[in-house]
Amino acid sequence: MSNPSNTEHFVAPFEEGVAFEELQDAPPRTGYRPSLTGWIGIAVVTFWAVIALAGPWLAPYGENALPFPDAYEEFQVPQAGAPLGTDVADRDILSRIMYGAGRTIGISLAATLLAYTLGVVLGIGAAVSGPKVDMVMSRINDAFLSLPTIMLGLVVVAAIGSSIPVLIATAGLIYATVVFRLARAIGMEIMVMDFVEAAKARGEGRWWIITREIWPNARMPLITDFGLRLIYVILFTSSLSFLGLGVQPPQADWGSMVRENLGALQYGQSIVPVLAPALSIATLTVAINLIVDDVSAHGGGRLSGRM
Amino acid sequence: MLSLILRRLGIGLITVLAVSIIIFFGTKILPGDAAQIRLGQEATEANVAAMRERLGLDQPVPMQYLNWLGDFMTGDLGTSLASDVPIVNLISDRYKNTVIVSALTALIAVPVSLLLGIMAAMFPGSIYDRILTFVSVSLVAAPEFFTATLLVLIFVFALGWGNAVVVGSIEGKGFFELIAHFALPVTTLGFVIASQLIRMSRAAVLNVMNSPYIEMAILKGVPKKRIIFRHALLNAIGPIVNVIALNLAYLVTGVIVVEIYFGYPGLATLIVQAVQTRDFVLIQGLGMIFCLTYVILMLIADIAAFASNPRLRHPK
Amino acid sequence: MPKDSRTQDVIFEARDLHISARREDGAEVPIVKGVNFTVRRGEVVALIGESGSGKTTISLAALGYTKPGLEFTGGQALLLGEDVTGKTTDQLRPVRGESVAYLAQSAAATFNPSIKINEQVTEAPVLHGTKTQGEANEKALALYRALELPNPESIGARYPHQVSGGQLQRLMAAMALCGDPDLLVLDEPTTALDVTTQIEVLKAFKRVIKEEGAAAIYVTHDLAVVAQIADHIVVLYNGEVKEAGPTDVIINRPRHPYTKRLMAAIQPLPEPGQGNIALDEHLRDDPAIEVRDVDAGYGMGVGGQPAVKILRDINIKIERGQTMGIIGESGCGKSTLARVIAGLLPACEGELLLDGQPLPPALADRTRDQLRRVQFVYQMADTALNPRQYIRYILGRPVEFYTGLRGKKRRKRVEELLELVELPASFADRFPHELSGGQKQRVNLARALAAEPEVVLCDEVTSALDTIVGANVIDLLTRLQKETGVSFVFISHDLSTVASFADEIVVLYAGRVAEQGPTDMVLAAPHHPYTRLLISSVPEPRMGWLEEAAQTRAARSGIAGGVEMTEVGCPFFERCPLAIPGTCDKVDPPRLDDGHGHVIECHRELSELE
What is the chain C residue with the closest CA to B215? Predict the structure, then answer.
């Protein structure tokens, strides 16, 4: 096939009356379809959700029951009747994990919901309020944000002692600062969009703008972040429990179970009493992270392939 | 640029003051009286009053705060309520231990993970990148004590090397004994911050790699190495330093859990003790040390972000 | 690739070139569907088409490059006789920047912000070993001079953000030419520039291409620009060549219906005497909107004044049922003026009258009825329409809000509005992202009409649209005005678009009105030196215009380093060929009125300006 010389006039064949539609340059968006790692995450999270809800009914023994009351010995190895062995007080580890699931997940979920309610309401509020209100709120928030979370938690627990409501309130308040900053940033981003200005110019009230213009657009990024925040709250509450400052014995909680059974490592008896609760937390948080990572998968870095 | 940094330093100073107020008044609402705690339940009214005066507790609270802040700045952290020992004595050795383990971790983990993160950004979507991403996504979400347990499982239980608990002090230990001494805490902490650092440095470089000027460099026929080291990294340095500072700040809190896990004689055990015995003078001192370190690292992170902007470095 | 191919005649040839996008689900979407064309030595070939035509994709193929996500799927791209489509990046490295160089649309984004200009300009030849650093520096300096850059000796030592946009665009040309390439690929290199800057850059490009003896592929959507610079035109639609031939043939005797439509969409500056005639039936005593002595700006300054003043001493009247065109270059304050009228940015001085009655400056102080009567249409429909709302809701809300219609009546009104902007009623159940750019802009317009307004402020509503689509929107506006008697304030940087349907024109420069009057008069007898510069800068779709324009343009009015606002005096002083030093830069220019509504702000006498 040879090209026409440049002095020639080439005209493609055409039919009269054919309209030349405006061309679409952006391909239509596609919905979220989980990848393999995404599915793994969803499966694991579902598994733990079921255990958290039904744990006490599924567990072979009670939270503080002894599977082998006649042969008391700490850190018994896994065996028939106690598939994960026993802990420092000869209790069935499997049962405690199942009881602890509800407590660990429940506390973290409640704290995250608290953080979100506070953070989103105040953050979006700051974004739609004038610059003065916004500055005062942001400065106060920045002061809290500039403290390491664990230290803040320690000071609170030292001040008012440890109980589950305190744990939820502390984690909720601490993480509300992070949510505040995110919600404010998202709100600000939407506030400067022309469609918000158009609504203001129309004469719409503040409440209408928040609920009809901002919230529908802020919802998705906030929900994606919820997963991430939940991970950090689980890690935070478990760390406090691990330090002995969260859920108090004899209540089962994954973080405090690790702490209770640390002795098993010291004398090299068994690693299961420590590994089992630690692994439970890790599988849960990693699974959530796999979903979050999958949802927010970025098409970035494609230029690298062209170098 | 300079005014921006000065402004940021000013904000840093205000933050430190805010932090000190939070810590001081946060611990002030503790039930109980320092003088009473020091002297025990049997002390007479008169003794307690005398002790209150000696501790300055008879003065108005804002005055107490100013005294406390002044003492703190001159290096006087007060006296422990639980053990009646000056807090400086109590923490000096442990502070050294915590600094050693943190510094060792940073020295090893930062360069290694930067290298890994940048390499992942160079070959996005490759098998190497996918494995690294999967591992770091997993580790970043796992609690410190899970990583620690994994390491104990591998090294102590499977391979039979050493002990799951850090024993003794570093004095008088030979080279290999020192390695054994620090191996587990440093590796655990290293994994924890490396997973963050790898992800964040990878993202920082990838962000730059998507710029039109990188495409232009490709279209100019610039060799790959030069694209990465001259065109991309130059613009990614600011964000990367920012990432390092943020992660070192994270190290400050991560170290607490790891020290407790391995029974390492650092500040962490002291903190937990202080909280459990409600020794709030000790909590105030330790809280200020941790928060100051954290605030300074965040400050460095922000200044690095300014410095990365060529518009600020070379004004019109 | 043989570098001694200087004798070769054919520099580049696309043979049945196919390029496809690979979707995430693996499906192949063809983008370029069998394109053929040839570029010979010393020849500039223009690829012209609208967005989605594949023109940029084809031009990049000359460098053996496809954007991430795209791939070559057939045919050949022969650069100096060798096919570059099958080559690896390593094989292409010595070719890129050496045999073929690329100029992108936005120089601001394509210069690395952290590296000094000279290093970036000289990088390619030095890395490829065809020039020493010293030789490359000399070449760069010669190019800076040829491109008429200010301070050619020192400009290379600056960072990209330290020079203006027009200068950076020319520096990118220097970067491309530094390696003496056989082929230049220019991708819309003047589209982002203001029109008075564009002409200078075009001139410089044309001369340098000729002097360097390079061949070029010039990608653009603008036929008027193409007529000035190209020898040969390839018209693309949807990845296919629709028509190709020498420039004069395509411009003067287009045969393909698509080319004809492209040509028809260009709005030439109307000949004087053919301007729009006022619609008398709508004329009443009071203008729809009157702006009196308005000053406005941003930020908080001292004494209730804004920190940065954008507008000064603005006086305009918008008559009922007429269109007021506001024209000026980026940063002149034209959008600010619209925002002041809309109440989005309250004026700090002066007053606004709506139908003879005072209109409060701030949005919050206006009544709902006042808000209804003045509507604002944004430039970017993408950000102006809430992506999470159905079109039914976007249009239905203002209907309900202003007219109180509900339920069935509201639904019916939405359908009427869609019909009014020539969209099917079924679009009511779509989200904005399910519409094309032109369709979104129509919805955007319909939202303003939902209020049944008296004045609609249109801020660059056609600027983001393709030529044909934009022309259709203008036709729609003209029809709507006839049917509803609404007044339009039409803001644009594009003089030909404004002139094609505005009854009156206001020319803004650096926040001041330079000239205003009936479109006819302003075009036929521009008085202000800036208006003259502006009119003479609008490219005409005929060959030879650039050379003529270059001769007639006054010497001092070259490229502005950026429009400067001035506290006192005439802001055009620096560029004005008729400036009177000591007066123009010290005293605010007086308003000269010829008694027929034609107003000029200038220190010169009217007779001196004719």
Answer: C110
Contacts of C23 in chain A (CB under 8 A): 27
Domain C10-109+183-265: state its class: alpha beta
The domains of chain B, with CATH numbers, are 2-73 (no CATH), 95-276 (1.10.3720.10)
Q: Do domains C10-109+183-265 and C289-609 have the same CATH topology?
A: yes
Q: Are strands C599-601 and C591-593 parallel, antiparallel or unpaired?
A: antiparallel
Nearest Cα to C240, choosing from C465, C62, C18?
C18
Residues of B in contact with C127 (CB under 8 A): 220-223, 226
Question: In angstroms, how far apart are the furthest CA atoms of chain B?
Answer: 86
Residue A84 scores a pLDDT above 60: yes
Q: Is the CB of C106 less than 8 angstroms away from the CB of B212?
A: yes
Tell me which of A32-36, A270-274, B207-211 is least confident.
A32-36
Distance CA C592, CA C581 (A): 20
B232 to chain C, any CB pair closer than 8 A? The answer is no
User: Which pair of tokens denotes residue A229?
Assistant: 């925040």
| Phi, psi at C124, each rounded to 5° | -60, -55
**Domain encompassing residue A191:** 34-55+89-306
Q: What are the φ/ψ torsions at residue C295 (nearest 5 degrees)? A: -115, 145
pLDDT top residue among C552 and B190: B190
Asked if C511 and C309 count as a contact pair (C-beta separation under 8 A), the reply is yes
Q: What is the pLDDT of residues C81-129, one digit of tens each?
A: 889 998 888 888 988 988 899 998 888 889 998 899 999 999 999 999 8
- Could you tell me if A197 lies within 8 Å of chain C, comparing CB atoms? yes
If you measure CA to CA, which chain A residue comes closest to B251?
A148
Which residue of A lies nearest to B227 if distances are taken between CA atoms? A307
Q: Which chains does chain A touch, 3 or more C-beta pairs < 8 A?
A: B, C
Q: Which of A88-102, B163-177, C558-572 has the lowest mean pLDDT?
A: C558-572
What is the predicted ipTM? 0.82
Please identify among residues 179-218 of chain B the ones whose CB lies closer than 8 Å to any CB of chain C.
Answer: 211-213, 215-218
For residue C83, the cross-strand partners are C78
Between chains, do C113 and B217 touch, taking CB under 8 Å as contact?
no
Instruction: Kindly list the residues from chain C whose CB atom is less than 8 angstroms away from the CB atom of residue A202.
Output: 371, 397-398, 401-402, 451
Q: What is the pLDDT of residues B156-193, one digit of tens each?
A: 877 877 776 766 666 777 777 777 778 888 989 998 88
From residue C104, alpha-carbon distances to B213, C155, C237 in Å are: 10, 20, 21
In a domain, A229, yes or no: yes
> What is the rounded CA–CA span in Å between residue A103 and residue A106?
5
Task: Give the number of A-B residue pairs with CB atoms closer than 8 Å.
Answer: 171
Phi-psi region of C350 (alpha: psi -120 to 50; beta: other; left: phi over 0): left
pTM of the model: 0.82
What rounded mean pLDDT belongs to chain A? 83
In a domain, A25, yes or no: no
Residue C556 confidence (pLDDT): 46
Among C544, C531, C540, C609, smallest CA distance to C572 is for: C531
Structural domains in chain A (count): 1
pLDDT at C35: 92
For B239-254, what is the mean pLDDT? 80
Q: Determine the distance from the C-alpha atom of residue B58 to the mean position of all C-alpha atoms in its chain, rounded to a whole number.
A: 36
* Residue C454, pLDDT score: 92
- From the list A30, A193, A302, the residue facing C24 with the nearest CB is A30
Task: Say which CATH number the domain at A39 has.
Answer: 1.10.3720.10
Contacts of C562 in chain B (CB under 8 A): none
Q: pLDDT, tens digit, for every residue of B104-135? A: 999 999 999 989 988 888 887 788 888 888 88
Mutation site for A-interface testing, chosen from C386, C436, C473 by largest number of A Cβ within 10 Å: C386
Among chain B residues, the shortest Cα distance to A269 is held by B157
Fold of C289-609: Rossmann fold (3.40.50)
Q: Which residues of A touch C338 (CB under 8 A)?
A: none
